[in-house]
Amino acid sequence: MAPLPDAIKFHYSQLGLYRRHRKLVLAVLAIACLGGIVLPFVQTATCDAANLAFAQAKTSPTATRNLGFPLRRGPLAFGSLETHRSQGEASLCFTIYGPHGSGILYTDAVRFNGRWQLTSLDLKIAGRPDRLNLMPIQFTVPF
Q1: How far apart (Å, rounded) are the C-alpha atoms in residues 94 and 98?
Q2: CA–CA distance from 113 to each of 79, 82, 117 (Å)?
Q3: What are the domain boundaries of the chain?
Q4: pLDDT, tens digit, 9 for 90 and up, residues 13-43
Q5: Which residues of 76-101 are buried (b: 16+ CB within 10 A; e: fewer)?
Q6: Residue 57 and residue 68: Cα distance in Å, rounded?
Q7: What are phi and psi of 27, to 5 degrees?
Q8: How is the beta sheet containing 131-133 ordered, strand by strand?
Q9: What's the pLDDT tens digit per position in 66-101?
């Protein structure tokens, strides 16, 4: 077999970065894209409003009666979260699981002076058409 002419010969270092390290470049791009998509949902799931909603659901007799005890929370939350200094609003939903089933927890909350307060907390259990209100009953005494 005849040797290749000098015009056809090339060295490995002459290949572009992508061609030399194709798998590495694709892995870095995939991680960057996945991080950009998943990270906002994880941050929303770990916010104080979501933690407050889940804590309230764990102590709700309605939730534990329908899903069992202990309750666990899914890793992602969906919705909106807006904060500005000590004020804010959140409208979130995330999955909760128990030994007897699973459901979606819907919550609305407001933040005033740095403290979150739930305005609504509903549980939609898989296979049931209605939402269950998990907000505790608050009695007010008129003066």
Answers
A1: 14
A2: 22, 14, 11
A3: 39-133
A4: 555 655 666 777 777 777 666 655 554 544 5
A5: ebebebeeeeeebbbbbbbbbebeee
A6: 12
A7: -65, -45
A8: 72-84, 87-98, 101-112, 115-125, 131-133
A9: 999 999 998 888 888 888 888 989 999 999 999 999
**What is the DSSP secondary structure assignment for residue 12, as one 8-state letter?**
G
Furthest CA-CA distance within the chain: 106
Helix (H, G, I), strand (E, B) or coil at 34: helix
pTM recorded for the entire structure: 0.67
Q: What angle do CA 119, 122, 124 make, to 5 degrees?
A: 160
Q: Which residues make Cβ contacts (< 8 Å) with residue 73, sequence separation at least 6?
A: 45, 54, 94, 95, 96, 97
